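Practice problem 4.
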């Protein structure tokens, strides 16, 4: 029986079987999953013309680029006119390796210079290539369009003090690579039974996170000089994403801002940075806050943007518990102004809703007239104030702010302070009345005033039905961490990528 004589549904089944992840296949340590699969698909694409059309589409859909591949990638895609097949480009930059003579110290000046050259050449070369790609209306109409993802790490980062990176180093935004179980027993780097036995030394962390000012471009690098030190305009990228996969900080002024300005049709910005490390020499968290302050200013002037997600992660191994309450006031206030033209905003950990709604808190005589969110449909914000003492003040201010969000569909606030998780949701559904809900581990209840204010908001959205009020109970909690709470959020899939959510889920004990 020939291939062509098979019924179309059977042909499709064969194609899909070849595309399925090989979850039961024996792991090949030398070939990560995301590298092995394209190789198989390339072979499939060579079988016949029909197979070529089908598998090429899959082959080119999502590409992972090492910096050494960038130029060749540009030539191949342009020469074979395959740019219209690409939906996701992950520029996965690898810095040089290092050994134990350097794993406990920050990068030297020479290493820093080398890293900046590698980073600059890779990003500028790729954006140079993308600037020449023709626009494609079909891709632009898709929700995500073409996504550019960026990451930087050294392959050695998994081998020394930050060995927790090893389980996620080969994850992609579309699949999790499950390495064989590994129990970290490493006296030199103080790991025992899969956990570090002491707080990791700051200098060892700086090696992996980099200086809190972040990795930046060096305009003396050849690729920057080729473009006369101004990044070319790229019109084909609609989404820009940085996942929590690696710890490396990026400079805003000298890396992220120029990239964002270059992507002049950017609609989605999804950013999952790591909190800065405080050391004797500098306050890493404050430095990162200053960087993010600049970032929000840059995003405010980006007229094309409709979606921002910002999740500043922290890790009990590397940060301290009391850091949950340390959101920066100015950062929240700036984000409130940045977000006024957005349709979706999700911000967590580094930003507190209490600061975001500053103009609506009791005591403020009248919010400024321009504090309105005319297009906002989905909003979720982290706060440390959904507590017995602080929740009523916040929920009343939030209700006043919600009144100047005429299109809002989901409005979610959440707290993850140790032992006291609490989630508030205002939601509109197609069927049923508007609803407010409060889920907590400590019996949180709305005040009469809060219910009244939210009922006024609900009336503006749906004058037919009465506001429904619901309460939920998490039961005894006892997990001093933000990670389990995230899994209960209605907006979790907008706040974090699916892979990041799964990575967090894997950290929950039991
Ligand atoms: Zn080492």
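Answer key:
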């Amino acid at each position: 029986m020939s291939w062509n004589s098979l019924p179309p549904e059977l042909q499709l089944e064969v194609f899909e079987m070849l595309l399925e992840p090989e979850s039961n296949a024996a792991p090949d340590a030398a070939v990560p999953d995301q590298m092995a699969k394209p190789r198989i698909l390339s072979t499939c694409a060579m079988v016949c013309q029909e197979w070529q059309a089908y598998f090429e589409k899959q082959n080119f859909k999502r590409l992972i680029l090492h910096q050494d591949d960038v130029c060749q990638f540009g030539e191949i895609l342009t020469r074979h006119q395959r740019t219209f097949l690409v939906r996701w480009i992950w520029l996965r930059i690898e810095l040089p390796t290092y050994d134990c003579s350097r794993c406990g110290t920050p990068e030297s000046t020479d290493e820093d210079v080398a890293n900046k050259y590698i980073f600059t050449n890779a990003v500028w070369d790729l954006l140079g290539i993308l600037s020449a790609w023709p626009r494609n209306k079909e891709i632009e109409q898709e929700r995500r369009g073409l996504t550019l993802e960026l990451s930087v790490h050294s392959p050695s980062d998994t081998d020394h003090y930050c060995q927790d990176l090893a389980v996620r180093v080969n994850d992609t935004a579309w699949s999790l690579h499950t390495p064989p179980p590994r129990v970290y027993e490493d006296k030199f780097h103080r790991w025992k039974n899969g956990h570090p036995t002491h707080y990791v030394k700051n200098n060892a962390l700086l090696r992996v996170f980099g200086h809190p000012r972040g990795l930046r471009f060096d305009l003396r690098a050849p690729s920057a000089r080729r473009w006369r030190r101004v990044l070319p305009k790229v019109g084909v990228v609609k989404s820009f994403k940085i996942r929590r996969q690696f710890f490396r900080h990026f400079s805003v002024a000298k890396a992220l801002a120029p990239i964002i300005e270059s992507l002049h049709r950017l609609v989605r910005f999804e950013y999952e940075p790591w909190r800065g490390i405080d050391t004797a020499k500098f306050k890493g968290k404050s430095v990162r806050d200053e960087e993010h302050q600049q970032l929000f200013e840059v995003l405010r002037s980006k007229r094309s943007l409709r979606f921002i997600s910002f999740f500043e992660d922290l890790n009990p191994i590397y940060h301290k518990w009391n850091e949950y309450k340390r959101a920066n006031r100015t950062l929240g206030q700036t984000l409130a102004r940045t977000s006024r033209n957005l349709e979706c905003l999700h911000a967590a950990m580094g930003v507190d809703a209490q600061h975001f709604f500053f103009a609506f808190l009791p005591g403020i005589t009248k919010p400024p007239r321009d504090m309105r969110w005319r297009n906002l449909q989905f909003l979720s914000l982290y706060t440390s104030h959904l507590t017995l003492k602080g929740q009523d003040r916040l929920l009343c201010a939030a209700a006043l702010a919600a009144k100047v969000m005429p299109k809002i569909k989901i409005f979610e606030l959440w707290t993850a302070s140790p032992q006291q998780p609490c989630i508030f949701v205002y939601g509109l559904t197609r069927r049923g009345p508007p609803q407010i809900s409060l889920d907590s581990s400590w019996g949180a209840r709305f005040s009469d005033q809060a219910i009244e204010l939210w009922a006024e908001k609900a009336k503006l959205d749906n004058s037919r039905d009465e506001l429904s009020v619901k309460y939920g109970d998490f039961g005894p909690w006892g997990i001093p961490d933000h990670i389990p709470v995230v899994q209960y959020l209605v907006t979790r899939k907008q706040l974090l990528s699916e892979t990041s959510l799964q990575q967090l889920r894997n950290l929950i004990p039991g």
